[in-house]
Structure formats: structure tokens, C-alpha cells
Design a protein that fits this description.
By secondary structure, chain A is α+β, with helices and mostly antiparallel strands. Chain A has helices at about 25-35, 55, 65-90, 110-130, 165-175, and strands at about 5-10, 15-20, 45, 155-160, 180-185. Chain B is built from 17 helices and no strands. Chain B has helices spanning about 20-35, 40-65, 80-105, 115-135, 160-195, 200-205, 215-250, 260-285, 295-325, 330-340, 345-355, 365, 370-395, 410-435, 440-445, 455-465, 470-480. The chains are: A alpha+beta (about 190), B mainly alpha (about 475).
């Protein structure tokens, strides 16, 4: 079976990869399953929206983000408790309305808000950290067709650095998954 | 069939018009930011922008002369300033409710309106934040609100609900902005990839952080989105509860009631949905998004307004009941005075707009009527402003000592400051409509039937069985 293939050159030393384009989420997911079963690890799918079941099809472990948020949420809570205790209880004891300087019930709103604030900030920055974003420069952006990955096409990319990678065999494997098109993104010198 | 698919048998409707495709969604939403602005946009923008100028002028005058330029007096120490603050914060709540609470309840219809509502939240909270900042009198001391070590060695009073408010509203603004931005990343990447000129490519490219739709990213992204939704849900309930503590923890009759937190939250959601409805009905007709924001969305939002409007009506009735049942004569007087005293006009405007007008939505014909929905949403916006006015001003103007009773008259500066805050809101909102995808493109695509990875599977298997599908796979396997 023949699939239209083009080569895009990138400057030398830049990671090279194969990029296959699919029409539907289903075709893309089947290709991902095949790569997973063939033992590939450095491959990815690029879709305009999250495709459900893709994590399993790619053999990915669960996200670690929840743990980061949990730890940072607790940090927020402890920050609130220590801030209020130090400010109104130790550094400048403040008695208002006949209540003791350290009055636990009045801690609740501020500690709650700080827990939420720290958790939310860590959810966003943790997500960006785990994803290694922002990263404005990536070999997939060398492809013009890849612009459709944020519109209506579905892509699979396999990096040359994958231990299982073999230029011809991986190309044939991708070609067997009914892509619309395959692009070879590599540096021209090699 | 996707599990997201509407169940026709129980009367669920399509989430978007049936002919929509991935491409058509990208196109319909992106083109609003790409085509030149319609003339109406410019008229609206310049009007709103000049009101922003009015606000700056009013605030400048206030800073120059002092808070005496407002009608606030003794006993009415809080008036339009705090009314506007509470009104604007309340409007923000619908955005978070739509983006977080409806997300956790898997209400897929929210995807057409959540971006819009979240933007409204952020801009409403910006307007809200203006008022506590400028009402303190000596604005150059506004930093006393924050726990900053200073030369006096003093700290803010953490037992004060006004300080809780600083933390609640500040957190709310930060988290809402983060939530909005996270939702925007994939859509900004869509605009980047469609960009025809290098400036657009650079700006959208910068803000989309190099998003490449990677599934390894989507995994963490979706987790982050879910965590933010789970955090925003208790947050949104806490914000208006804390705002209500400003009143409820005082000893003022009419304010000192335990019903305030849930009552304020219901009212906030109610007013926010009304504002979303007002804006959405205009935007959907101006920018021709009727395929994506359908009559079903309007109907569902009207149902929420009916529910929250009835909750608010219940709270009004319960306040009266408790005023009588408590046997507290000051409390009883405040409520009789509200409905029959010098501010009875404001009270009855509130009842008409908030309690009576949403009752029209019991009728399916009326809640699917667009002009009527628009009119009622305006009524509710007005009614909810009057609710806060009634709570604040009627409670304050006659408290314990008849000799200190008074009446509040707004001044011109009160009025221009309020209109100016509307100007800021609409300026920001119109800029949002022009430059940011107003509907969540990626999310909306994910609820189309063809987004399901098993869409059309039966069809495909039947093909592979009979002809070339299987053999070609076998050939390629031998090729290895």
C-alpha cells in the first residue's frame, strides 16, 4: 500500500521525527495502539481536542499532577495558619471583640482561600512544568500540514531517538495504519 | 454511539446544530476574531470606552475632593459603592458556576457558553475590585488591606470579615483568570495556526505557549482543568458567603442573619446568569453563532434562572418570617420599614424584577422566546442591583436610635462612577469578543459525535472484513 510521503528539512542537530496525518480520532488511536504494541515509547499523538481512551492506547501512566497540587494545597493551608498566628497572635497580639489573640474559628476563611489559591497556582504551573511548556520551538512546527492539528486533523509523531526506531520499518509501520499522509522531518545533511 | 450523545428518547436535544463539523466550529469561532469588526462593534466599543473615561474622571475627582463627593452620610456609611461591589462580584459567579460546577456535573451543553461566561466573570470581578479600593477614603493607605510588614509594626486584623473579603475576592480573581487562561491555550493555538500575518502569529503564538495538541500534554491539561474545576466549586460558594459575612457578622438589624451566605450565593448565580443571557443573546445574533449557541442553551439557562430566582424569593420571604418569629423588635421594624417605608419603591422594584419576572419561565413557550428572555434578563440585572441597594441602604438608614435616622440621595458622582464601571466592563468585554475565541473551540469539538474514537466503528469493521482492509495490513506486516 502506498501513502503519499514528503520530506521536510530542519536545521542539523534538531530532533527528527516521522509525522503521520489521520482523518479521524479512531484512525489516530489505532495507530497509537500499534506503536505501543510494537514497543515504541518516544511517540506522541497530536489532536485538536483530548481524545478519550488515547492515554490507554498510548500506554501512558497516570498524571502526577494531583500529588503536586495536594502538597501545595497543604502548603497554602500551613501558610495561612502561620501567617495569622504570627501576625495577630505573636508579633502584634490583637484583641478584637473580646476574642483571644489566637482565635481559631476566625482563621477558617483566610486559610481556606489560601489553600485554594496555592492549589490552583500549582495546578496550572505544575501542568505547564510537567508538559515542559512554554516551548515555542518544536520539530513538528516545521510541517505546514501540522497547522491542521489544532483544526480538524489528527497526527502521530515518532521520534528518531526512540530505541525501536528504524527509518524504513517505522515508516512502513505508519504507512500500514491508513494515514492521509506521512511527513519525514529530518535534517538534510545526514 | 458516544456516551455524551443526547438521549433523544428523554427529550435531550443536540448540543450543537447537527451539521456542525470540526472544521465548521473552528471557522465559525475564529472568523469573529479575523474578519474586520462590524460597524456596530465600533459604535459599542467607542461608547463603552468613553464611559471608561467617565469612570477615570469620577475617580480622579473623588481622590481630589474626598468621599464627600458621594451621597454617603451618617447613618448611610455604605451606599452605592458597596452596592456596586456586591452586584459586580455576584455577576461574576455565573461564570464560575458554568465553567466549574456544570463541568463537574458533566453538563456538556456548557461548552458553548463557558468561555463567554468566564470572561464575564473576570471583567465583573475587575469592576468589583474598583469599589473597595476607592471607597476607603484615604486611598494611598489602601495597602493596609494586605498583610505587608510595614513601618508601624502593625498587621491587618484577621478577625475582620473585610479582610477575609480581600483574600476571598483576590483568590477568586486569580483562580478565575487562571482557569480562563488554561481553557484558552488550545484555542489560541488554533488562532496561531490560522494566522495570516506575522503579528497575529507572534502574539497568539506567544500566548498559546507552543501548544501542539500532544496527548502527553492533554493528559496533564485535562487533569489540571478538572482540579481547577474542583477547586473553583467550593471557591465560588465561599466568595459570596464571605461577602455576605461583611454584613452578617455585624450587629445591624437587617444584616445580622444566618441566612445570608446561601441567600447571597443563590442571588449571585441568579444575577450572573441574567448577565450571561443579556450578553450572549446579543453576541450570538451579531456574530451569527446560532448553530453553536442554540435555543436549547437559552432554555436551560432560563431554567437555572427560574430555580435561583425562586430560591431568592424564598430567602426574601424567610427573612420576613424570621424577623417576626425572632421577636426582635429592631429586626421586625427593619423589615416592615423595607416594604412600607421611604425605600418601599426600591423594595418593590426588587420583588417585581427578581421574584415575579422569572416566574414567566414556567412556560416552555416563554422560556424559549428570545426577545422575552432578553427583557427578563435585563429586569433581573436591575432587580439584583436593587436587592443589594435595599439590603445596604434600608438597613442602615434607620437603625437603633431614631434621632440618627436619615435618607440617602445619590450624587452625580455616584451615578457617573456606576455608569463608568459599566463602561469598563463593556470595554473589556468587547475587546474580548474581537481578539479571543469567544467559544471554547477544542471543548466544543470534543462533544461532537465524530469526536468519539469509536464513532463509525461498525461501519469500518464491516469493510475490513470483506475486502482490502485486512489483506493490506497483512502485507505490510510481512514487509517488516
Amino acid at each position: 500500500m502506498s501513502v503519499e510521503t514528503t520530506t521536510v528539512s530542519v536545521p542539523e542537530g534538531r530532533a527528527a521525527l516521522l509525522l503521520a496525518e489521520y482523518e479521524t480520532p479512531s484512525a489516530c488511536m489505532k495507530a497509537a495502539t500499534k506503536l505501543r504494541d510494537a514497543g515504541f515509547t518516544k511517540f506522541d499523538t497530536h489532536t485538536p481536542f483530548p481524545v478519550h481512551g488515547m492515554d490507554g492506547a498510548m500506554g501512558m501512566a497516570d498524571s502526577k499532577l494531583g500529588w503536586i497540587v495536594f502538597v501545595m494545597g497543604l502548603t497554602g493551608l500551613l501558610t495561612g495558619i502561620s501567617l495569622i498566628t504570627y501576625a495577630n497572635g505573636i508579633d502584634y497580639p490583637l484583641i478584637v471583640g473580646g476574642k483571644p489573640a489566637i482565635s481559631i474559628p476566625s482563621y477558617v476563611p483566610v486559610c481556606f482561600e489560601l489553600t485554594i489559591l496555592f492549589s490552583a497556582l500549582s495546578a496550572v504551573f505544575g501542568m505547564l512544568g510537567l508538559n515542559k511548556l512554554p516551548r515555542h520551538n518544536h520539530p513538528v512546527f516545521e510541517s505546514d500540514r501540522f497547522k491542521a492539528a489544532t483544526d480538524d486533523k489528527f497526527f502521530v509523531s515518532v521520534e528518531y531517538t526512540d530505541p525501536k526506531f528504524d527509518a524504513d520499518r517505522t515508516l512502513a509501520l505508519l504507512a500500514s495504519t491508513h494515514p492521509n499522509h506521512i511527513e519525514i522531518i529530518e535534517d538534510t545533511e545526514s | 454511539m458516544s456516551f455524551d450523545a443526547p438521549i433523544k428518547a428523554i427529550g435531550e436535544k443536540d448540543l450543537v446544530a447537527p451539521k456542525s463539523t470540526f472544521k465548521s466550529i473552528t471557522e465559525a469561532v475564529s472568523r469573529v476574531t479575523e474578519n474586520p469588526a462590524p460597524k456596530g462593534w465600533w459604535i459599542a466599543f467607542l461608547t463603552a470606552f468613553s464611559f471608561t473615561g467617565v469612570l477615570l474622571g469620577s475617580i480622579g475627582y473623588l481622590f481630589w475632593r474626598g468621599v464627600g463627593v458621594w451621597g454617603n452620610n451618617s447613618p448611610v456609611g455604605w451606599a452605592w459603592d458597596i452596592t456596586n461591589f456586591v452586584w459586580w462580584v455576584g455577576i461574576g459567579h455565573a461564570g464560575t458556576l458554568i465553567s466549574a460546577v456544570l463541568f463537574l456535573f458533566r453538563q456538556k451543553w456548557r461548552t458553548s457558553i463557558n468561555r463567554f461566561a468566564e470572561a464575564m466573570t473576570i471583567f465583573a470581578v475587575i469592576c468589583a475590585l474598583i469599589f473597595p479600593g476607592i471607597h476607603v477614603g484615604r486611598v494611598w493607605h489602601a495597602y493596609y488591606m494586605f498583610p505587608i510588614p510595614n513601618q508601624m509594626g502593625a498587621w491587618p486584623n484577621f478577625k475582620s470579615p473585610l479582610l477575609w473579603d480581600v483574600f476571598a475576592v483576590g483568590t477568586y480573581f486569580t483562580v478565575s483568570s487562571l482557569f480562563w487562561f488554561v481553557g484558552l491555550i488550545p484555542d489560541l493555538a488554533t488562532l496561531r495556526d490560522r494566522a495570516k500575518n506575522s503579528l497575529r502569529r507572534m502574539v497568539y503564538g506567544f500566548f498559546s505557549l507552543g501548544w501542539r495538541g500532544s496527548n502527553r500534554h492533554w493528559q496533564n491539561y485535562e487533569r489540571a482543568y478538572m482540579i481547577l474545576a474542583a477547586l473553583s466549586t467550593p471557591l465560588v460558594l465561599s466568595v459570596h458567603s464571605v461577602v455576605s459575612f461583611d454584613f452578617a457578622t455585624s450587629v445591624e438589624p437587617g444584616w445580622h442573619t444566618t441566612i445570608f451566605p446561601p441567600y447571597f450565593v443563590a442571588g449571585a448565580v441568579f444575577s450572573g446568569f441574567a448577565m450571561v443571557m443579556t450578553l450572549l443573546l446579543v453576541a450570538r445574533s451579531v456574530f451569527k453563532l446560532t448553530d453553536l449557541v442554540t435555543i436549547t442553551h437559552v432554555e436551560l439557562m432560563n431554567k437555572i434562572m427560574l430555580a435561583t430566582g425562586s430560591l431568592v424569593g424564598y430567602a426574601y420571604a424567610m427573612e420576613f418570617f424570621v424577623a417576626w418569629y425572632s421577636g426582635n423588635e429592631y429586626e421586625r421594624y427593619v423589615f416592615i420599614n423595607r416594604a412600607t417605608g421611604p425605600y418601599a419603591w426600591a423594595y418593590w422594584i426588587m420583588i417585581t424584577c427578581n421574584v415575579i419576572s422569572p416566574q414567566l419561565f414556567w412556560s416552555k413557550r416563554l422560556r424559549t422566546n428570545i426577545p422575552l428572555s432578553f427583557v427578563v434578563s435585563i429586569f433581573i440585572n436591575i432587580g439584583m442591583w436593587f436587592e443589594r441597594f435595599v439590603i445596604i441602604v434600608t438597613s442602615l438608614h434607620r437603625d437603633f436610635i431614631p434621632s440618627s435616622w436619615g435618607y440617602f440621595h445619590p450624587t452625580l458622582v455616584d451615578i457617573t462612577t456606576y455608569l463608568g464601571s459599566l463602561g469598563v466592563f463593556f470595554t473589556l468585554f468587547l475587546l474580548f469578543l474581537r481578539w479571543v475565541p469567544m467559544i471554547a473551540i477544542a471543548e466544543l469539538k470534543s462533544i461532537l459525535p465524530e469526536a468519539d474514537p469509536h464513532f463509525g466503528d461498525h461501519h469500518e469493521e464491516a469493510h475490513e472484513g470483506d475486502s482490502h482492509g485486512e489483506p493490506s495490513l497483512a502485507t505490510s506486516a510481512e514487509g517488516h
